[in-house]
Recover the amino acids of this structure.
């Protein structure tokens, strides 16, 4: 069975500090997709990134960067120079490719609090 | 682009009352559909998923049920709500590798 673990339940930083969110996953599939979502206080889930299991190239998007390490089954997320607006709950998710469709499994989420 | 409509946004229901939450999807056909629940301060728990009309898979035993009467409609129901059913319910659609979420329904059972 697939599983996603986000060991950090809450991280508190001061504005402009960098923050790294850990995500470790388990799956028996060789083909799968990993996601990061942001959930601001309003509740909706905002898609941040998708990575497939065959693409281990790290990605940077503005202040966000992702480090995919297949050897350690990790897909970590770093926010550089954090801002107050980054305060939210961040979820890592895994999508296995089933015969009839994809099933999303989420980690428990990490609450990030950025203080001014 | 895909859009997911989910309503109502908030709901307060007494214990023992029925529940019906509706989710409709626009912009795609034959999506996989999901209902998730998020208890206060907790992660997202997958409740049901559906790969087609009339096809429902339940992830956890509970007081809720789901139905998919049309390709782009997914309904979450209960005959009698429990206090423990309170939470934030999110509908999601997944086509190929993209996953999109509705705005969520915050349910409080009193």
């Amino acid at each position: 069975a697939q599983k996603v673990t986000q060991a950090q339940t809450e991280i508190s930083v001061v504005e402009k500090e960098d923050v790294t969110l850990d995500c470790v996953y388990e799956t028996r599939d060789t083909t799968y997709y990993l996601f990061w979502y942001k959930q601001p206080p309003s509740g909706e889930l905002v898609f941040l990134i998708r990575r497939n299991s065959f693409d281990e190239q790290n990605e940077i998007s503005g202040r966000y960067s992702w480090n995919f390490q297949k050897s350690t089954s990790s897909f970590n997320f770093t926010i550089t120079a954090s801002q107050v607006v980054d305060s939210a709950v961040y979820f890592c998710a895994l999508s296995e490719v089933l015969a009839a469709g994809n099933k999303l499994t989420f980690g428990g989420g990490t609450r990030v609090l950025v203080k001014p | 682009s895909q859009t997911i409509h989910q309503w109502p946004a908030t709901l307060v229901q007494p214990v023992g009352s029925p529940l019906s939450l509706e989710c409709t999807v626009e912009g795609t056909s034959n999506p996989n559909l999901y209902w998730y629940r998020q208890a206060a301060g907790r992660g997202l728990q997958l409740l049901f998923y559906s790969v087609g009309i009339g096809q429902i898979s339940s992830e956890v035993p509970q007081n809720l049920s789901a139905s998919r009467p049309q390709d782009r409609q997914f309904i979450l129901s209960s005959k009698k709500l429990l206090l423990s059913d309170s939470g934030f319910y999110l509908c999601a659609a997944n086509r190929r590798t993209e996953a999109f979420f509705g705005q969520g329904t915050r349910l409080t059972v009193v």
